[in-house]
From TrEMBL:
This is Glycosyltransferase family 4 protein. Residues 188-355 form the Glycosyl transferase family domain. Pfam families: Glycos_transf_1. One of its GO terms (molecular function) is glycosyltransferase activity. Gene3D superfamilies: Glycogen Phosphorylase B (3.40.50.2000). It comes from the Bacteria. It comes from Segatella copri.
């Protein structure tokens, strides 16, 4: 039987076979691509020369009080580009797929379909995720980003936020830019949503960075809810991080990091989601947030900040609410109380969250999207 699938080479700086790497993004991308293409995966690990350059560069700038990122320099991207060019010259491919701008920026190839996938552009990350960069590093980073997208005739972004920056700031032709949403890396086959108890509201927080994810806001929000609304008990369940200070409150519970590859810990995570009524994550910076896909998969509406690419994953009044940046704990309190006061609203949002997951916030939907835009 003849295999009519197009040949595709997938190139990534992370291990695409590791389900834990980068929140499972490389692994799930490859699994979806394999549905429609004959895929060869390349994990482009650092060479000794690249490592020496990266470490030397980083130490030099740290001594000067800067946190420059060597991975976003034209020198580092050229080192990667040479290796990628050699790989692509070995045999003919129909499609090359890049996850990483420094992998695509200096590639020279006649492969018909060249695909770049990302959840953000470098320009957006400056003073958002990346801080204290020099002007030279920023210039380099923007050049690498621009060249990568210009080199590809199919650019897929995980949010409108990222795609608009490609078009508006880097002037990448809109005809080459497409949306492709992240999916949830969860198994809901044995999931059984617990009925909502009117006297108890379980809030769930999942995040590994206390400050960036807004841990303190979530804590204060819970304390205020219990003071303001004595008709219910509000319990906050923290997964992923520990506070930098001691918190003694019977309504705030910490579970630390739960590894989904360990059955007991995976089951604990499922159990917390089964009982959760609202997902709260006052994150100050987020490119997209697979965690919002996961919450929707379990029918949990999200309350968060309106930042980054979250707008494509949390729709106001549908599967949650995005509060303006600068909102304080009392604003989160008022929004939660507003939802609970509107009879039937919580149930509607829970059902809408599950529907959104089934329709577009799952990996199969992204696989279908790849087939649509790549061909």
């Amino acid at each position: 039987m003849t295999n009519n699938k197009k040949t595709l080479i997938y190139i990534d700086g992370a291990n695409p076979e590791d389900k834990r790497s980068w929140s499972g993004i490389p692994y799930n991308l490859v699994q979806q691509l394999k549905r429609n293409y004959d895929v060869e995966t390349i994990w482009l690990q650092e060479t000794k020369m690249e490592r020496i350059f990266r470490l030397t560069y980083k130490v030099f700038w740290r001594l000067l009080g800067k946190h420059n990122d060597p991975c976003f320099t034209t020198t580092y991207a050229k080192l990667k580009g040479r290796r990628v060019n050699k790989l692509l010259a070995r045999k003919k491919y129909d499609v090359v797929f890049f996850r990483g701008s420094n992998l695509a920026a200096y590639v020279k190839t006649d492969i018909p379909q060249r695909v770049y996938f990302s959840d953000a552009c470098f320009h957006q990350m400056v003073d958002y995720y990346f801080f204290h960069l020099t002007d030279a590093n920023i210039k380099d980073g923007n050049e690498v980003q621009r060249r990568a997208m210009q080199n590809c005739n199919v650019n897929v972004f995980a949010s409108n936020w990222a795609m608009r920056d490609a078009v508006d700031f880097y002037h990448i032709p809109e005809s080459t830019c497409h949306l492709g949403y992240f999916g949830a890396s969860v198994d809901t086959t044995e999931f059984k949503k617990q009925p909502h108890d009117e006297s108890l509201v379980n809030l769930l927080f999942v995040g590994v960075e206390w400050e960036r994810k807004g841990g303190e806001i979530a804590v204060e929000c819970t304390k205020l809810l219990n003071k303001k609304d004595t008709s219910r008990r509000y319990v906050l369940h923290f997964v992923g991080c520990q506070p930098p200070y001691e918190i003694k409150d019977e309504n705030i519970k910490f579970y630390g990091f739960l590894n989904r590859n360990i059955p007991e810990q995976a089951q604990k995570m499922i159990s917390l989601r089964e009982q959760a009524d609202i997902f709260i994550l006052p994150t100050r910076a987020e490119c997209a947030g697979i965690v919002f896909c996961e919450s929707s998969a379990y029918g949990i509406p999200s309350i968060t900040f309106d930042t980054g690419g979250i707008g494509d994953y949390v729709l106001n009044g549908e599967n949650g609410y995005r509060l303006p940046m600068g909102s304080n704990p009392i604003d989160f309190v008022n929004k939660i109380l507003e939802v609970l006061a509107d009879k039937g609203k919580l149930q509607y949002m829970q059902e809408k969250a599950a529907q959104m997951y089934k329709e577009r916030m799952n990996w199969d939907a992204l696989g279908d999207r790849f087939r649509e835009v790549i061909g």
